[in-house]
Amino acid sequence: MPLAAVWLLRYSVVMCLLLHSLILMTFCFHHAATTCSKRCYCSETESGGKTMRCSNLQLTEIPEDIPNDTRRVYLDFNLLSAVPTNAFAGLTHLVELDLSHNEISQLEPGAFRGLSSSLQFLDLSSNKLVNFNPDAFEGLRARANLTNNPWLCDCNLQMALPRVDLEPASLTGIVCQTSDPEEIGVQGLAFLLEPDIDLCVVMKRTTDVAMLVVMFGWFTMVISYLVYYVRANQEDARRHLEYLKSLPSRQGKSEESSTISTVV
To answer: Of 3, 28, 87, 132, which residue is 20 to 30 A from 148 by alpha carbon distance?
Structure first.
């Protein structure tokens, strides 16, 4: 067999193996990106996109292997206690996320980061959310269900609500179970529907009192300094006056001594 033919055959075999490896790697990566998360059930919708159901599986953590092409994720009726930062990063096609009926009491900053352009509905109902963290919803414009949570309505909540971009009607789901101050009387009310209630009034009063105390302290210092200054100057003036009074008598004694010397 000619040398050129042998070389061509070897080159063809090598290229064939490389091509086969590339196809295999591509398939593996695609499979990793589109396969269903362990213990969950996935299905393809007629309109396209994957739906992943992980309901009622006693999950304590959010799965980390959610397929990238997933459009709907159902994690309801589990034992999730927190949503960590970047929990759903990379799911750029996600339009619906159901986290209802869990034990969630904490939403870390950036919990829903990466979903601002795609997510349309977020369900956080029937959890244990007490404090509203606006940093968890950064840039999110979805419709959210926030009902059936033991929300604490306080000044922090009042200042946090204007910082989120959620659909405004979603915030009506924040119904106060407790409040600070307690005597404000918002228990059982949707805070957004009570625009006349000011939960920061106590903080404002405290700030006003603190300002008055500071101003009184400065005023006292100024008065004390003025009193000290006046007393110090009075003492100096008295000494100077005594000195001036002593000058004529000394001058008189000097003239008398000069006269006696002249007579002698």
So the answer is: 87
**9 CA to centre of own chain:** 64
**Strand pairing of 70-74 and 82-83?**
unpaired
* Contact in structure between 78 and 58 (CB atoms under 8 Å): yes
255 vs 202: CA distance, rounded Å:
80
pTM as predicted: 0.66
Query: Taking a C-beta distance cutoff of 8 angstroms, is the pair 130, 151 a contact?
Result: yes
Average pLDDT of the residues in 167-174 = 93
Residue 1 in tokens: 């067999």
Tell me how far apart the alpha carbons of residues 123 and 181 are, in angstroms, rounded to a whole number. 29
Cβ pair 69, 49 in contact under 8 A: yes
Instruction: Give the pLDDT confidence of 80-96 residue by residue, as tens digits.
Output: 999 999 999 999 999 99
Strand partners, 175: 190
Structure tokens at 94: 């996600």
